Amino acid sequence: MGSYKMCLIFTRKFRVTEPGPVDDVRDVFEKYADGEAHMSPEQLQKLMAEEEGGGGGGSSLEEAERIVDEVLRRKHHIAKFTRRNLTLEDFNYFLFSTDLNPPIRDQVHHKMDAPLSHYFIYTGHNSYLTGNQLSSNCSDLPIADALKRGVRVVELDLWPRGNDDVCVKHGRTLTKAVKLGKCLESIKANAFTSSKYPVIITLEDHLTPKLQSKVAKMITQTFGDMLYYHDSETCKEFPSPEELKEKILISTKPPKEYLEANDVKEKDNGEKGKDSDEDVWGKEPADLISTQSDLDKVSNSINYLNQYDEERGSRDFDTSCQLQQAPEYKRLIAIHAGKPKGGLRMGLKVDPNKIRRLSLSEQLLEKAVASYGADVIRFTQKNFLRIYPKGTRFNSSNYKPQIGWMSGAQMIAFNMQGYGRALWLMQGMFRANGGCGYVKKPDFLMNVGPTGQVFDPNESSPPKKTLKVKVCMGDGWHLDFNKTHFDLYSPPDFFVRVGIAGAPVDEAMKKTEVKYDTWTPIWNEEFTFQLTVPELALLRVEVHEYDANEKDDFGGQTCLPVSELRQGIRAVPLFNRKGVKYGFTRLLMRFEFV
């Protein structure tokens, strides 16, 4: 029973009710229990195979028996069962359990023996930063956290510390440096805790040949046999994630290219305008790391530092010295990287005898796709394309990743501390394939027609699939939130936003009615989505608490790859703004492809 003070005079009392079965649950139970009061393991197995699509190996009798035994153990606290079947209440408990009845598979199930460039790879940007891009601390902790969450590409910016040491920091800013050795040890300790598939370290190198030699020694000593050596300059095809399990790959520009890159740096640091992360769902939440206005002031204060560094850099990095290179450092590079030279069209040219990585800013990607869309896709069929945030995202916000995925870009580099809707999409994409950090690109991005034609995202085509999503009910907020978190005087008034992120033609957002004064809202509302590119569609779900006078309160979110959805009634766990799963808060939803 929850009590709420009203005007300091009287108290309103509301009972937190145990959620009973909704009509959809009753209907399914009656259908498969053949009108009886109990459902046997055989009947549950039939339901899992027929009504709910199996769910990735969960349709065997043995699995059905395991579920029945687990439900009885949890709900009735007995280890030895006088009966081995489920009542309607037991069945409802099973359907509303996020671990027993999740909405997507939790195992690796994509084909993992294709070349590495055939996969989208979970990629971090400036992985060492704890907050904003200008003045936050650098640390090994965010690197460890990202790897534990399944991120497979980690970025380190290497700068001299004095004449004989190397540190990791965001150059020409006020960020506080961290020792390279700490970062390398953190990668070694956490690289394969959540996924056995390869980790790629992308290095932004601002070092002399002497310090490059030191870095090569540190990397070799730290990782030893974990390091993968590969001459991508003379290689026509890259190994697969399966072949590279528990391997560390280094990706950076050969030392000579850093010198040349200084003359072709993109002029995007002062370019503002509408962010690509704004869409029909509204602006990003206001509680990002730091406000943009505050960081603009910090940016102005470090202009002198930038000018000083550029002057000093021209003295420190002598051309003849740099061209000597450090052979042991160059030997470490498994994936050779670079920025486009000679214009975008030249940068996207495919060399049949080499594999390389090209880096483009989010803005340059948009220009490349608009002008040379087919060339971008052809490039990514063999080579690696890395996209990174524009320079004005001082607050570590992110951009819409869909344009990169639609173009086949493998590495969409994100600020993992930049909480908001864009990062929720990224987290949703990489919940696919068991959360291993590698998602096989759909075939249409790899296919080449008889006359060389490739996928055109702008070409109009009829919907391939129709997805029906029913929001049945929700529960668990009273256990994860204080009773007055949403409203001082009454239980919350929840509503749900449901929509699609993906191809522009598939983008949509719909919402349920508001259910007033209840911790266990029942909506029973169904929505239909026509999907032209279901392979790259993400189902977006957000719960909000309606407030007539102020901004609606946040009540949880999730993002799920449509291609992985298990049909039928599923328990959908919700996550907080940072992407951390709540302990109890969840929705009961039904999915159907027609």
TrEMBL record:
Its main location: membrane. It is found in: Cell membrane. CDD domains: C2_PLC_like, PI-PLCc_plant. It is a peripheral membrane protein. SUPFAM superfamilies: C2 domain (Calcium/lipid-binding domain, CaLB) (SSF49562), PLC-like phosphodiesterases (SSF51695). The keyword Membrane applies. It holds the Pfam family C2. It catalyses: a 1,2-diacyl-sn-glycero-3-phospho-(1D-myo-inositol-4,5-bisphosphate) + H2O = 1D-myo-inositol 1,4,5-trisphosphate + a 1,2-diacyl-sn-glycerol + H(+). Its cofactor is Ca(2+). Its EC number is 3.1.4.11. One of its GO terms (biological process) is lipid catabolic process. The keyword ATP-binding does not apply. It is an enzyme of class 3 (hydrolase). One of its GO terms (cellular component) is plasma membrane. InterPro entries: C2_dom, C2_domain_sf, PI-PLC_fam, PLC-like_Pdiesterase_TIM-brl, PLipase_C_PInositol-sp_X_dom, PLipase_C_Pinositol-sp_Y. This is Phosphoinositide phospholipase C.
